[in-house]
Specification:
The complex is a heterodimer.
Chain A lengths: L9 H30 L7 H31 L13
Helix pairs in contact in A: 1-2
Chain B lengths: L2 H27 L9 H8 L5 H4 L1 H9 L5 H11 L1 H14 L5 H8 L4 H33 L5 H4 L2 H17 L10 H29 L2 H12 L3 H7 L3 H17 L1 H9 L7 H17 L1 H11 L9 H8 L3 H42 L11 H27 L2 H5 L1 H10 L2 H9 L5 H23 L14 H23 L4 H12 L16 H12 L1 H14 L11 H15 L1 H12 L6 H74 L6 H32 L8 E4 H12 L9 E4 L1 H4 L2 E4 L1 H18 L6 E7 L6 E7 L6 H4 L12 H4 L5 H11 L3 E4 L7 E6 L8
Parallel strand pairs in B: 2-4
Antiparallel strand pairs in B: 1-3, 4-5, 5-7, 6-7
Helix pairs in contact in B: 1-11, 2-11, 2-16, 4-13, 4-17, 5-14, 5-16, 6-16, 7-8, 7-23, 8-10, 8-19, 8-20, 8-22, 8-24, 10-19, 10-20, 11-16, 11-17, 11-19, 12-17, 14-15, 14-22, 14-25, 15-19, 17-18, 18-19, 19-20, 20-27, 22-24, 24-25, 27-28, 27-30, 29-30, 31-32, 32-38, 33-35, 35-38
The chains are: A mainly alpha, B mainly alpha.
Chain lengths: ~90, ~900
């Protein structure tokens, strides 16, 4: 059983970091959705809130799409065997 | 529009759905699954999340509570932003275990416990029934909007007809097969189409409202701002952060745990790859479905007379503005939303009911089966599922009829969400935490469900208790927070203090690490039970499919025929395939019964771990041995290199020495020859004899040196250790060396006081070294006014250090390393008149004395340092 390498080459390293970003994204989403509402509910309830909410929503969708494309590309660039190393996910 | 025309459109639409589902099923049967497997079809099928409650209800919700309606869509958006690492993994694990429902997932994780699955099924049934009733109601109400003025009798049975039609559709396309992977291409394709209708209807109405009725987005925002100036509305619209948070979290939990969502998202997913697209496409769908909600609500409020039901604004708004075609499209959208939800929910809940209630009960009733029982289990399971579908839809209809009023049902969507959310702690915990165990899951799900029933479900139907909460706290939020908190704490608490049984621990490992489950050889009994297993599989899958599977497995093992060996791997795969048809718990029980598995013990578990550990250790041992071999090989190579170098050195030495001996020998021979000439004068004779004498002397010195060197090198030199004064030794050395090139006047710089050091060493040998070094300086120093500096000191560790430095040009760096080698004369041998062994001998002497002689660079001339130890080493 080969030990997991201590250091990775550039492509694998890049893919791991993108994986980290994918993990951070839902947390960030939750923060962006909750914190402003606790902060200033009145200013986010009406017309201004509509713009804020749908703007944020669109940005999130684009962010997920960009991230997933980058992850797919990074995954294609590295060995598929490496995917077994995703253990530390959920 | 005429009610009859509406009915006809509706029937045509239903016929289209049947046709699409049928065509998709046929295409799948013929193996044409490429476009059926497209990620977009998968994404659209996820839209079953948007039921009639969200289709009609979100506008009503928005007109009462403003932006709060969006939380229902924001929760799933949060979950899908984590699609890459979260959902992908959930799908991978669920597919690895052929999980058939959310109840099955929880049961499989916690030791294949059917009782746990039965409890989850109960929650699902209780939560789904009113939810299905809500869908039926929305269809009935939407019919009624069009049927204004039509006789009451015509529309009385709408809900019944819809329910019957949906049950038929579900039974037709939802129970066609009992495949190992519970996929329903027909249903999924029909739902994807309905998703498009829903979206088209919503966007069409939204575009009409924003650009047809209002003057574009800016005007729409202005209208929203104007509406919010109404104090009553403003209060309702004000976001309450606690509710906002709870709603987002609950809807995020719902997308993972609602039976219908689990069905389309996990069970119907062929692989996890489709989540790459769904990760952004599904949130985009949700955004599109909610973008126009607030505009429609505001516009309807502006244009429609007060007192109309906001939940039906979607239909009444286009009707009131004379857009009957748009109204029909919206009606079809709502109809799609309601029907797709009922169909998928019925399939999901019916699978749970039949797998976790009916089949286990039936198996338990027939406790002692004949090993060759021939009855058609497949038919039984399918019938059980059909029965369950009928029962689930019928229960929804009965509930609808019994509750009657619309107000009681409107809240049912959130009630169902919170009910299924009680499964989330056990589900997430089971996937993330190996320590989670069955007792914890029982306690968590049980306590959460009880609190949900008492604080949320019963109050929603007008019974139960309302949580006494302080002023200003939202009761619903408090109830949700309390039930989920108690649930989670009970789950964690009992997991911490429990010790799970071995099956559960194996499953826990498999779920948390997303690796294939292990099965130990000791877990099996009887190697000749392949035939009963085949018989059992045949009863579930049908003869052909079972034979095909067994044959393929046998071939994979390298056997011919239909009966593979009962290896752990085969039994494992078979059990998980069976689990795809009847659930993990039942499959486990059946395999155990037929294959005669024995109860797994902790000792077996430790042995499994031991085997893995041994394999790992073996690999590590091999690895170490390999490294050792590499090391040895390198050492051997180095030794070989050294030997080769030594051999070359030896040859060079022999060559040198022959040359050195030959030169004086040649002169001796030549002059002896000349001496034979009788005609020489006495003076000449004397001169030649002198030369011969000198050359013979040189020859003798050379041989002496060589002997000396060989004695020293072989370590056979005898030391006569005495105490000597360095001052005396240096004085004697200077006197002896002054014979070398006596014509040169050297200025000697000595530190007489420091020189009075006593050393314990072989004085004669040390003197030999000193003479050699000083003579060398006299020979080679090329300075105009040569000078010799001699410094002596005692280092900290004892002994002595003697530095002898001249002011010549020194030795260039490249040759410094060579001067202690044999025959390393730096310049013309004739001039130096030595054999080039002096410094080599010096080094050997110093090594024998336990000290060292070295060249000191950078001292302004040739500089040698002689280091003496406190006492010479004792010869071994």
């Amino acid at each position: 059983m080969p030990e997991r390498p201590l250091f990775l080459e550039r492509a694998s390293f890049h893919r791991r970091r993108l994986g980290d970003a994918a993990r951070v994204l839902p947390v960030l989403t939750l923060i962006l959705l909750l914190v402003p509402v606790w902060w200033a509910p009145a200013s986010l309830s009406y017309a201004g809130g509509t713009v804020w909410l749908f703007g944020l929503w669109t940005v999130l969708i684009v962010a997920v799409r960009v991230l997933h494309r980058a992850l797919l590309r990074a995954e294609a660039a590295t060995q598929p065997v490496e995917r077994a190393g995703d253990r530390d996910a959920v | 529009m005429q009610f009859e025309a509406l009915l006809a459109t509706c029937l045509a639409y239903v016929a289209l759905m049947f046709g699409v589902a049928y065509a998709a099923d046929r295409a799948a049967a013929r193996g044409h699954v490429r476009w059926l497997d497209h990620p977009l079809v998968y994404t659209l099928s996820l839209s079953v999340y948007c039921s009639a409650w969200t289709f009609y209800g979100s506008v009503g919700y928005a007109s009462r509570s403003g932006l709060e309606f969006a939380t229902i869509y924001l929760g799933p958006t949060v979950v899908f932003t984590g699609a890459w690492w979260g959902l992908r993994r959930l799908v991978r694990v669920a597919r690895m275990h052929h999980v058939t429902s959310v109840a099955d997932l929880v049961s499989a994780r916690f030791g294949k416990s059917n009782r746990l699955a039965a409890i989850v099924t109960l929650i699902a049934v209780v939560a789904s029934t009113p939810y299905i009733a809500l869908q039926l109601q929305s269809v009935r109400l939407s019919f009624e909007v069009f049927a204004e003025g039509t006789a009451q009798a015509t529309r009385g049975g709408t809900a019944l007809w819809v329910a019957a039609g949906l049950a038929l559709f579900t039974i037709l396309f939802g129970t066609r097969n009992l495949a190992a992977d519970e996929r329903h291409h027909g249903v999924v394709t029909a739902i994807a189409l309905e998703a498009l209708v829903k979206l088209a209807a919503f966007i069409a109405l939204g575009v009409y409202v924003v650009w047809g009725l209002a003057d574009g987005p800016a005007d729409m925002l202005e209208r929203i701002a104007r509406a919010s100036r109404d104090p009553v509305l403003a209060e309702g619209w004000l976001i309450r952060p606690d509710r906002w948070t709870a709603l987002i979290l609950v809807s995020a939990a719902a997308i993972l745990t609602l039976p219908r969502m689990f069905q389309v998202m996990v069970v119907e997913a062929a692989d996890e790859e489709r989540l790459h697209v769904a990760g952004w496409a599904f949130p985009a769908y949700l955004l599109a479905m909610s973008l126009f909600v607030l505009p429609i609500a505001v516009m309807a409020r502006d244009l429609l007379p007060a007192g109309m039901d906001p939940d039906l604004y979607m239909l009444t708004l286009p009707t009131a503005t004379g857009q009957s075609g748009l109204a029909l499209l919206v009606f079809l959208g709502g109809f799609s939303a309601a029907t797709s939800m009922v169909v998928v929910c019925a399939i999901a809940v019916a699978t749970m009911v039949s797998n976790h209630w009916i089949v286990p009960a039936w198996l338990a009733l027939r406790r002692v089966p004949a090993p060759d029982e021939m009855d058609d289990l497949r038919g039984f399971v399918l019938n059980a599922r059909r029965l369950a579908i009928l029962a689930v839809v019928a229960a929804g209809w009965v509930y609808h009829e019994a509750s009657g009023g619309s107000a009681a049902l409107a809240a049912m969507g959130l009630v169902a969400f919170t009910g299924m959310a009680q499964v989330l702690p056990a589900m997430l915990g089971g996937l993330l935490w190996r320590g989670a165990n069955r007792k914890g899951a029982y306690a968590g799900i049980g306590s959460g469900a009880a609190l949900w029933m008492a604080l949320i479900f019963l109050p929603s139907v007008g019974a139960g208790v309302t949580l006494p909460v302080p002023e200003g706290v939202d009761p619903w939020t408090a109830a949700v927070a309390l039930s989920l908190a108690v649930n989670t704490l009970a789950f964690i608490g009992l997991s911490i203090f429990g010790f799970p049984d071995p099956v559960e621990r194996l499953q826990g490992l498999s779920f948390v690490s997303a690796v294939e489950p292990i099965r130990h050889r000791r877990m099996l009994r009887g190697e000749d039970r392949a035939e009963p297993l085949l018989a059992m599989a045949r009863r579930l899958w049908g003869a052909d499919a079972a034979l095909r599977y067994f044959q393929a497995e046998a071939r994979a093992q390298g056997k011919s025929g239909y009966l593979p060996d009962l290896t752990p791997r085969f039994l494992n795969a078979l059990e998980r395939r069976l689990a795809g048809s009847i659930g993990a718990a039942t499959a486990h029980a059946m395999i155990d019964r037929v294959a005669g598995g024995v109860a797994l013990t902790v000792a077996d578990l430790m042995q499994v771990a031991g085997e893995a550990q041994r394999a790992k250790e073996e690999t590590q041992r091999l690895e170490a041995a390999r490294a050792e071999l590499t090391r040895t090989a390198r050492q051997l190579r180095e030794a070989n290199d050294k030997l080769t170098a030594l051999s070359v050195q030896k040859d060079a030495f022999l060559g040198q020495i022959s040359h050195e001996l030959r030169t004086p020998m040649t002169s001796v021979r030549a002059f002896s020859e000349i001496l034979k000439d009788p005609g020489l004068t006495a003076e000449e004779r004397g001169r030649f004899a002198g030369i011969i004498h000198d050359e013979a002397g040189r020859l003798t010195r050379l041989l002496d040196d060589l002997l000396d060197l060989s004695v020293l090198e072989s370590g056979r030199a005898q030391l006569t250790v005495t105490v000597a004064n360095l001052h005396d030794l240096i004085g004697r050395a200077l006197a002896a060396a002054s014979a070398t090139r006596p014509e040169r006047g050297f200025a000697i710089d000595r530190d007489v006081l420091a020189e009075h050091l006593g050393v314990i060493t072989d004085a004669d040998r040390l003197l030999q070294v000193l003479i050699n070094v000083i003579s060398n300086a006299r020979k080679y120093c090329d300075a105009e006014r040569p000078q010799l500096i001699i410094r002596v000191r005692r280092p900290e560790g004892g002994g002595a250090v003697i530095d002898i430095v001249d002011n010549g040009s020194g030795i260039d760096a490249a040759r410094q390393s060579l001067i202690f080698e044999k025959f390393a004369r730096l310049n013309d041998p004739a001039r130096a008149g030595g054999a080039g062994l002096g410094l080599a001998i010096c080094r050997e002497i110093m090594l024998t004395l336990g000290g060292e002689i070295s060249y000191l660079p950078g001292q302004g001339g040739a500089a040698f340092r002689i280091q003496l130890p406190q006492r010479p080493p004792v010869p071994a």
